[in-house]
TrEMBL record:
GO molecular function: ADP binding; DNA binding
Family: Belongs to the AfsR/DnrI/RedD regulatory family.
Organism per entry: Virgisporangium aurantiacum
DNA-binding region: 1-86
Chain intervals for the UniProt region annotation (Disordered): 1038-1057
Name of this protein: SARP family transcriptional regulator
Keyword DNA-binding attributed: yes
Domain OmpR/PhoB-type: 1-86
InterPro entries membership: BTAD, OmpR/PhoB-type_DNA-bd, P-loop_NTPase, Sig_transdc_resp-reg_C-effctor, TPR-like_helical_dom_sf, TPR_rpt, WH-like_DNA-bd_sf
Entry keyword Cytoplasm: no
Domain of life: Bacteria
Amino acid sequence: MLGPVELSADGRLVDAGRPRQRVVLAALLADAGRLVSSEALIDRVWAEAPPQGARRALHAHLSRIRGLLEGSAPLVYRSGGYLLDVDPDRVDLHRFRRLVANGGGAGDLRDALRLWRGEPMAGLTGEWVVRTRQAWVRERLDATIAWADNELSIGNAEVTVGPLTDLAAEHPLLEPLVAVLLRALHAAGRSATALSQYAALRERLADELGAEPSASVEAVHRTILRGDAAVTGSGRPPKAMRTLPAAAAGFVGRHDELRRLLAAAGGARTVVIHAVDGMAGVGKTTFAIHAAHHLAAHFPDGQQFVDLRAHSPARATVGPAEALAVLLEADGVAAAQVPLGLDGRAGLWRERTAGRRILLVLDDAADAAHVSPLLPSAPGSLVLVTSRRKLATLPGATLTTLNTLPAADAARLFTHRAGPRAEHDAAAVRRIVDLCGNLPLAVALTAARLHTHPTWTVADLAADLDRAHDRLGALVSGQLAVAAAFDLSYHGLPADRRRLFRRLALHPGPDLDAHAAAALDDTTAAQARRGLEELLESNLLTEPRRGRYCFHELVAEHARVHAATDPDRDAAVDRLLSYYQHAATTAADGSDAVADVQDAADWFTVEHANLAAAVLHAADRDHPAAIAIPAALKGYLRNRGPWDVAIRLHHTAVISARRVGDRSAEAHALTNLADVQRQVSDPAATATAERAHTIHEQLGDRRGQAAALNVLARARKAAGDVPAAIATAERAYALHQDLGDRHGQAADLYLIATSQIATSAFPAAVANIGLADTLYRQLGDRRGQAVALGTLAWAQYMTVDFSASAANAEHARRLHRQIGNRPGEAHALTILARVRRATGDCARAAEAAELALALYEELRDPHGQATALEVLARAHHAAGDYPAALAVAERAYALCRRSAVRHGEAEAAAILGAVQHARGDHRAAAAALDSALTIFRHVGNLDGEAEVLNHLGRLHLDTAASAAAHRTFTAALGIARRIGSTSLEANAVEGIGTYLIHTGRFDAGTRHLRDALAIYRRIHSPNATRVEEILSSCGPRQGNPVVGADSSGCGERHASS
């Protein structure tokens, strides 16, 4: 990062990809160990003008990065973002920051600066890159200044002059840098050069900024003029008052916040006000003091600290008048000369600070009015204010909200505070900081407990905290307690806000909006919104996204303690569940769920986690929402997943319906459950659908029977019993016809068609797809149209109509994207990838497969992931990238084996065998191909059987098993002609021709090769080029053409997935 963005493994550089991919990698590494939202990544890569396909392109980059980092640094997807789980010390940027933050010893700073290899992120472009590069360069400058200070303090002036001179030439107006250069030159006996540098700075400041040098530069200048001994300090005026408390030892984290603060303060020409807010215990005071010590050298005329005590449990708040008296006396004003009134004191304070550059820390302010009278008047001064409230009304203030620490920083804080016992049990430390919610106060107090129990291990402490029924009560040390800090914030609220705070703790989901809050508090959405905003300003809530609010885990626990005594708690929960039930049902019906939601799918996307939590909560209370919400969510979950959540919700609905004796609801829930089980290749799907059908039949519900039969047919097809699937779908179709249900008829026709494709009955499949598409168009069902188009594209691919297949796959993809059907979009991408591979465009085939893989990973669909990996492996194999093809094929095979997806296992084994053959591992190739052949024959996939037979024929030729080669090629040819697969026919004819030439029958062999060439040309296969080269390189009796492992080309087969 501190140079070109590079990866290294075992001392070797690894190609990090093209520039755009390296920007994605840099965006992740900049926040290593922390979650980065997809939106933030898109903004960092494409800034304000992301292309239409930005999200898909991002997923492709992330998939490739995941492959680069596999085995060394997992790239994890979590709730809308990505986390690169890497030790920060393995990233030069974060190692640099840690060394600088260690306290700034000369050795640490020297090691930190050695990590720089040139311009950060060299060679990359973009708004985020430029902005971030500038910030990192400023960090380097600050570290260089600190390093030079340390070297000067121990008499090493000469080593600093060169680096400082070079940097000052690049940054001639950075006064702290020039000041330390002047001191270094003076200390090295080069005072004349120092005076020349000062004159150049003064002239440049006057010309470009209309300003004079700062007091610290002037102080160094005066020292040089007097000829005093070389200064090793910063040249501060001797009477400046310094009342900063000592900086906390072992300060960790807060790099971004500190960097922004330092950048805003350095070289400022006006009063800079930086207001730091955050929840109780988040470390505001520690951060402000740490920052103040970093900045002290920039403010030579004084650094003062005042504790305003707005949230002190034992001492009265320090008002503005009292605070001004403290400041004036610390600045040398005798107590008797301090004016009596607030206005008089404020005026004297402004008078005394005029013309001076001071740093003022005002800790624990109640609000903006508390600190306004204390602000100095001098341009170039800095005021740091900390408060539990957001001081948005403080004029000119820059606001910084401190959140809890990232897990890695929290672990480092605990280890530092706990001592050596914490250094050897990283898992226990991670558990402790997780139970502390990464809140610095909680982490520090828990570490302190370890000191009071010298016989405890860190694991003992983790277990004790894990078992605690009252976790807040366990987070205490001496007179300090997390609960006490929270109580001060809670009791400072008005009564109605305390009530809202309590009731928000009853919400079971991860976040909520004003409508859910209104249901809990029995008020209007507008009233609830005002209350939420006030709690947000008090840092008792956070707003992770616009209009979405949530608690920190420990604050939530504190709120639950108070909620336990609320007499309205049960009624509040019932109101919330009823709200979610009504909103989900109306959204599923196509009407607006709430007043400010325009699209039901958008509302489900925002609320799906809350709805899932509400279902589980409702089930415990026998509330009807446990049945109604999963039913309303079925379409959304089918289209977008994640399917493990869908299974849990539909299973909960089944259990709830049984408990209340609602058999109809149970049957519908079983149908929904079976549909999702089928999507994830769960063998239980068949039994679940059969049970649903039985109940519907017993109840006389013909519509329910038809729906259950459709799902049962899908489950049987997924299990490999294609004839039974077709028969079951035909029964469903007959029922839907009797009922006049055109939607149901279309779905059944689509299912029959896909089953026919699996048995290579392509003409019948195309006819049924056409009937289904007609029905979907009549109904205006865009999702149905998209699905039908995708299936038609698949059939066209299988019958080698590549142009039509590509066009329909693209059209299907666009439709799926417009309606938010991510499984459909992923399926269309896999078809597109296969078509591109078949027509020789292997690079774009791999790109489409990677996009499909990213979608399937988000859906947590193992079967889909395996399919995308299989297609990706074929693209790599066709392009001749055998190592990549092998790695991807092995991943696909392992996924299918784990998921018991027999058909997918055969597909993965087929490409795995082809790749192993290409690599020369004939024994492994034969085993994989034999396995694939067995499965294809078992499930009745003739297309797959023919493909594997062609592969085995080529393998037999390469291992001199000519007779076996002839048998397998002949068998493949018979199947290919029976199912009408011209591409597989050409592969087989080519193989027979090669066999004939190998066995000395040259004329017959070349006739077969010419027949194969004619077919390849007719279907526009890139294999035609290879056969042409073989024929042209092999004149009469010149020898045998060699067609072995590499003969498969980009378009050898078009198989179902």
